[in-house]
Amino acid sequence: RWVLSLECKGSRNFMGALRRAVEVDFKDKDKHKSQGLYLLTTGIPDQETHTISTYVAEACGGFDLQLHVCLFSVTKGTDSSGVIPARYSNPRETANAFKEIVQAANGRFHWFGEAGIFESDDITSIISEMEKAKNYSQKCAFLVESLKQRS
């Protein structure tokens, strides 16, 4: 709920924001069965991925907290703020960094841009389930066909 009162500003100080969310804003975390944090971002955090992953694994391991990341890749040249991030990486490196962080937090990763969805754990999971259903259906059809031939 507190997120609705926030204004877009700040830096890519991921650790500062995460610490605030986990250590201050989840005061009643023991009263809830499950909680999730959603990071909506356009670039890589200032801190090293390994440092963040270690902290996230420790912070999320104490209770059922999952960190989910939605990475939005902005088309080159559309950043009107003029702010150069403290740490730079290309879109693929940024996606790989957040995938590592999300894995440490047992969360989900989604990467999209103006052109559409580049990668999504939810969509990957749905496609996997559809493939399993298709394979099962084919096995059932084969079994039915072989039973018909015996009759």
Automatic annotation (TrEMBL):
PANTHER family: VON WILLEBRAND FACTOR A DOMAIN-CONTAINING PROTEIN 3A (PTHR46478:SF1). This is VWA3A protein. It comes from Acrocephalus arundinaceus.
